[in-house]
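Structure (tokenized):
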């Protein structure tokens, strides 16, 4: 495996942006199946490599892993900030495929993430079911409605602006799940959360919502908190779960 830090200019963000990329060596299985692996609120593009053995885990599956930096954006086109949703959903895949031998086929593309990144991965899959075969959320911040209602610091105001509700909007995972359920071809969904995690109740609500809609959801829970020991174990489960 090759681990590369890629610095490039993002026209969408109008800044120099960064991503870490894991690429299998050799000529086999190209173009490559690709996992877009997303970081949490307090992290950056280096965190998965620093806190887990993702390079070693990915090697066993011959899969490329793209890990972008999106700051504290919640993978949104921010009300007071940059267009990180446009960046991660449109510009990033296009640029990554121009730099590296990555497949553009739906069946070869996946997304996963932790906390804020779990939200981002589900948002990618539910917003673009034609582009992703499977998406996974680890301890995801899945209920943005609650975060807005409870005034989750300055971050939420920067993301959604001066509003008291985002119910039914394009950043509401519950609404996105309903729209996908009304169509055909939902990506496979994987969701896990530790029972001691502060986001556990949010995850239970989203799990029950997806089950009621009949979406193809695999849900797992066990004792665990919002921490890297748990995510290091669960990203291995995600890789074994992906339809590779």
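Design, position by position:
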């Amino acid at each position: 495996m090759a681990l590369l830090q890629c610095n490039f200019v993002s026209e969408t963000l109008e800044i120099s942006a960064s991503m870490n990329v894991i690429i299998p060596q050799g000529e086999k299985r190209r173009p490559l199946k690709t996992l877009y692996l997303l970081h949490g609120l307090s992290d950056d593009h280096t965190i998965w490599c620093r806190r887990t053995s993702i390079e070693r885990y990915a090697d066993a599956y011959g899969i490329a892993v793209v890990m972008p930096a999106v700051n504290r954006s919640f993978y949104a086109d921010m009300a007071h900030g940059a267009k990180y949703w446009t960046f991660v959903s449109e510009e990033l895949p296009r640029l990554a495929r121009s730099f590296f031998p990555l497949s553009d086929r739906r069946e070869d593309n996946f997304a996963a993430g932790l906390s804020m990144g779990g939200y981002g991965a589900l948002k990618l899959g539910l917003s673009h079911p034609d582009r992703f075969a499977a998406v996974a959320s680890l301890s995801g911040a899945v209920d943005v409605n609650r975060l807005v209602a409870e005034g989750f610091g300055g971050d939420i105001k920067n993301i959604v602006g001066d509003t008291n509700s985002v119910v039914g909007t394009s950043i509401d995972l519950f609404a996105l799940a309903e729209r996908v359920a009304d169509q055909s071809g939902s990506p496979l969904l994987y969701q896990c959360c530790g029972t001691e995690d502060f986001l556990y109740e949010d995850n239970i609500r989203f799990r029950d919502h997806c089950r009621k809609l009949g979406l193809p959801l695999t849900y797992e829970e066990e004792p665990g908190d919002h921490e890297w020991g748990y995510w290091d174990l669960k990203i291995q489960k995600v890789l074994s779960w992906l339809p590779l």
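Reviewer-requested clarification: Residues 10 and 95 are 9 Å apart (CA to CA). The chain has a mean pLDDT of 95.
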